[in-house]
UniProtKB/TrEMBL annotation:
Species this chain originates from: Panicum virgatum
Similarity comment: Belongs to the cystatin family. Phytocystatin subfamily.
Signal keyword on record: yes
Keyword Repeat: no
Signal sequence, start to end: 1-21
Pfam families: SQAPI (PF16845)
GO molecular function: cysteine-type endopeptidase inhibitor activity
Protein name: Cystatin domain-containing protein
Keywords from the named record: Protease inhibitor, Signal, Thiol protease inhibitor
Domain Cystatin: 33-104
Highest taxon above the source species: Eukaryota
Length: 122
């Protein structure tokens, strides 16, 4: 009876794969135009989802700054600082750090709000 070399080949492939370096993480790239339609929509999405999830009434005012990063496995990470205010609060805006993942052009149910927290003013 002949012995199969298949298990040996699999073991060698697994050993070779284990020694490969991990792919480098993409760097965060600044977004030069925070008024870009996609960036504004991501900011509006973050404020809306946070408001719905936490029963907070916030009005999106704009994106202060933004960065993007290619996400591992596809899509794009968006790191934003958005300005938002409570309606009827005398126009006092607060800034919020947001992290959103999504695929531009996809439906809204595939997007995810990963972080939304109020910035501490110095």
């Amino acid at each position: 009876m002949r012995r199969s070399v298949f298990p040996l080949e699999v073991a060698l492939l697994l050993a070779a794969a284990a020694t490969l370096p991990a792919p480098p993480r993409a760097e965060w790239a600044p977004v030069p135009d925070v008024n870009d339609l996609v960036i504004r929509q991501v900011g509006q999405f973050a404020v809306l989802v946070y408001g719905l999830a936490h029963r907070k009434d916030l009005a999106f005012l704009g994106v202060v700054c933004a960065q993007t990063q290619e996400a591992v496995g596809g899509g794009t990470n968006y790191r934003l600082v958005v300005a938002a205010a409570k309606p009827g609060d005398g126009g006092r805006a607060a800034e919020y750090d947001c992290l959103v993942w999504g695929v531009p052009g996809s439906s809204s149910d595939t997007w995810k709000l990963r972080r939304f927290r109020k910035k501490i003013q110095n």
